[in-house]
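Researcher: Here's the sequence for the chain we discussed earlier.
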Amino acid sequence: MRGAALKPCYFIALAACLATAHSLGRDWEALLAAPAQGGVLLRSQSSDDEDDDEEAGEDEGSQQEEAREYTSRENRTEKGTAQRIYKEGGSLKAEYHFINFNKNRVAVTFGMAAAEYNRYLGGYGYSDFELNGLKTWRETTRQDVWKKVYAASGKAAAQSAIADVDLEYDTRLRALLRSRGLALRAGNIVECDMPAVVKRNVELLKPLALAFSKISSERGWREENLIGGVLSMVQTAIRYKIPPSVEGGLHTGGLLPPARSLLSGWGDCDTKTGLLAAILGNWKGMKMVGIAVPGHYLMAIRRLPGKGDVFVRYEGLEYVLVEPAGPAWLEPGTVGQATTALLSGGEGYKVDPFF
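Model: Thanks. This is the structure I predict for it:
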């Protein structure tokens, strides 16, 4: 990037040039591939090939202004799944009803004070104004440095000073993106920094994790029931809908941060993956990785695969695949048909270790 202007169009969406395989015992490491250079690819595939929601990109404020009574969510055939997004005093709240894989009916609630939520949203996405401000600083500083250093020490020293300015610009740009849940990759591609997003939200979602722990203790769930409970909520009670890549003048990378997904009631594959991982990250010893394939994002949990489980190997260990996208109701170790086709591709895949 040194010596060249970075174009805003590079900051529209995610870059995902990754794939994996779907059969047990395959040599997954052989499919590792380097990211493609340039281009725009969104990770937004659902788990069962449903059409994109017509409401994608609708104004979130209108959703929060109206309290929703319990109704069966759209695109859902199983009974017992519902959501209610509402305001209570100075707080925003979301209540979800769903069915776990062990057929238990479950209900959980999450809430945040409105002021805290607004501050939270400010930590994601960046504006053209911010980017242009950085570019203006770079160009002005380059001109000033060139004049001063060239006059004092000559051309070679001035060129070296310009290179230092460009390096500082790169550092500042990366810091801005990192502070907003994004990362600059090779080829001037900006994508969501999923490990950073997950880690940033673990503590915030601790109350919801504790609610699941309480339910698990009261009902005598094993670990697979606990994981399944969180996964069932994310897959089925939270609607599948694709976020806009630019919203309210902010470039978002096509991702809703976890708390926003909860308090809006929707999200796509990478949004739901970040949400699921941030909740599960509250349990000690939980090891997870993100798995990116072309146009899609899912995750995997460290455990020995059972018969028929789809899994990947990472650093010599097996991780069982989990499909958070929904709206399909898929247990750990099972992925949707569309995902299976993507995983069978030969383009390679990338692993993002969360914990």
